[in-house]
Design brief:
Strand order of the largest sheet: 1-2-3-6-7
Structural class: alpha+beta
Number of helices: 3
CATH superfamily: Peptide deformylase
Bound molecules: nickel (II) ion
CATH architecture: Alpha-Beta Complex
Strand content: 25-35%
Radius of gyration: 16 Å
Order of helices and strands: HEEEEEEEHH
Number of domains: 1
Distance between the termini: 30 Å
Length: 167
């Protein structure tokens, strides 16, 4: 296994559209293992392949306290979305920034597991938020892009300043 470098906003590569996986093979299982290790090391509760510069539709999520309930979703598709809930979100690609985002409260998501078998997962609460957040990454969207233009401009200034300070 290996810890992969995470791309940080506003890197243009975060706007790449991920392609569907056509065959779930050992290469994909290795990617999932590396992504899980990267997410746990960060530490974070979700990671999309886009964030490690691999543009395939793969996400990993673990919202458990003991890091023992890993979900890996390949080619996820939301087949049902209901209600609306606002949660404060963060992202490993936008460190230290937390902002409220409105999303569907209940979702059903269809995906392939590590054996390439199609499954459907029903999710609500934090898990539903996480799945939608990570699926946005696969579409090239970062959560801060839901904020107002003014807030996004301020955020970019702040991140530029921070980057200068750490140089
Ligand atoms: Ni994220």
């Amino acid at each position: 296994m290996a810890i992969l470098p995470i791309i940080h906003y506003p890197d243009e590569r975060l706007h790449t559209q991920a392609k569907p996986v056509d065959l779930v093979d050992s290469r994909i299982r290795q990617l999932v293992a590396d992504m899980a290790e990267t997410m746990y090391a960060a530490p974070g509760i979700g990671l999309a392949a886009t964030q490690v510069d691999v543009h395939l539709q793969v996400i990993v999520i673990d919202i458990s306290e003991n890091h023992d309930k890993l979900f890996s979703l390949i080619n996820p598709v939301i087949v049902k979305a209901e209600g609306r809930a606002i949660h404060e979100e963060g992202c490993l690609s936008v460190p230290g920034i937390y902002e409220p985002v409105a999303r569907a409260a209940h979702i059903s998501v269809k995906f392939l597991d590590l054996e390439g078998k199609e499954l459907v997962l029903e999710a609500e609460g934090l898990l539903a938020v996480c799945i939608q957040h990570e699926m946005d990454h696969l579409k090239g969207k970062v959560f801060v892009e839901y904020l107002s233009q003014l807030k996004q401009a301020r955020l970019k200034q702040k991140l530029k300043k921070r980057a200068r300070e750490t140089m």
